[in-house]
């Protein structure tokens, strides 16, 4: 009895599957387009690929290479107008020249960049990340009390970071000839550094004179006390 029931169920299953398959084939033939019960599931679950081309991705990353996110605000900040030492304009000039040099280097990189060199971007990004903290160091040193020696050291560190970026981009762009505009920009910034350097030397000279003056005054005071002591001894 159980065998008969099992056989009947098997026959009904075969008939049902066959009817369903026939219905699918009829619908496919009637509407003249392929129909697949399973493909939509895989198509919906499959992630989109290449929504942004490699070139667009490269441009976005290169656009992020800049001297500092707030460099424009720093350059036009009105608080630097009240400087009476004459050193702040040279610091701002160095920041402005480094900003323009970085922008020009990135523009040159964009014109010569190819999607095949995506791996080289990581090196540029790493170097660029080291520039922004150097800008912060320069800005912090521009607040009073000003120390020209500290300003010179931090401006020099910023210029060296930008120079490193220029060397990396020149190497990646495979430029065999030297970029005269890079050398000209660095030479121009050296003039501003020289002003800070001379101010630092003048400050050291003034501090040395004050120290010598205090030392001489102390020596004279000691000698005067000794003379007075000798006179008192003779009188007694």
Automatic annotation (TrEMBL):
InterPro entries: TMEM98. GO terms for cellular component: endoplasmic reticulum membrane; extracellular region; plasma membrane. It is found in: Cell membrane; Endoplasmic reticulum membrane; Secreted, Extracellular exosome. The chain crosses the membrane at residues 6-27. Coiled coil: none annotated. It comes from the Eukaryota. Keywords: Cell membrane, Endoplasmic reticulum, Membrane, Secreted, Transmembrane, Transmembrane helix. Its main location: membrane. The keyword Phosphoprotein does not apply. It is a single-pass type II membrane protein. Belongs to the TMEM98 family. This is Transmembrane protein 98.
């Amino acid at each position: 009895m159980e065998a008969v029931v099992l056989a009947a169920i098997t026959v009904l299953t075969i008939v049902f599957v066959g009817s369903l398959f026939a219905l699918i084939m009829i619908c496919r033939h009637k509407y003249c387009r392929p129909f697949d019960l399973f493909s939509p599931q895989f198509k919906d679950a499959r992630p989109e690929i290449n929504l942004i081309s490699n070139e667009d991705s490269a441009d976005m990353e290169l656009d992020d290479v800049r001297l500092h996110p707030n460099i424009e605000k720093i350059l036009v900040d009105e608080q630097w107008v009240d400087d009476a030492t004459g050193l702040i304009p040279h610091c701002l000039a160095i920041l402005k020249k480094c900003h323009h040099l970085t922008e020009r280097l990135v523009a040159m990189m964009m014109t010569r960049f190819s999607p095949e060199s995506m791996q080289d971007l990581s090196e540029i990004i790493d170097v660029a990340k080291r520039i922004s903290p150097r800008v912060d160091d320069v800005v912090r040193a521009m607040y009073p009390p000003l120390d020209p020696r500290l300003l010179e050291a931090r401006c020099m560190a910023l210029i060296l970071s930008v120079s490193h970026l220029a060397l990396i981009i020149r190497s990646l762009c495979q430029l065999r000839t030297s970029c005269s505009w890079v050398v000209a920009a660095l030479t121009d910034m050296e003039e501003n550094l020289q002003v800070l350097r001379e101010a630092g030397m003048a400050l050291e000279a003034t501090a040395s004179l004050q120290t010598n003056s205090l030392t001489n005054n102390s020596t004279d005071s000691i000698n005067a006390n000794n003379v007075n002591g000798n006179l008192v001894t003779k009188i007694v």
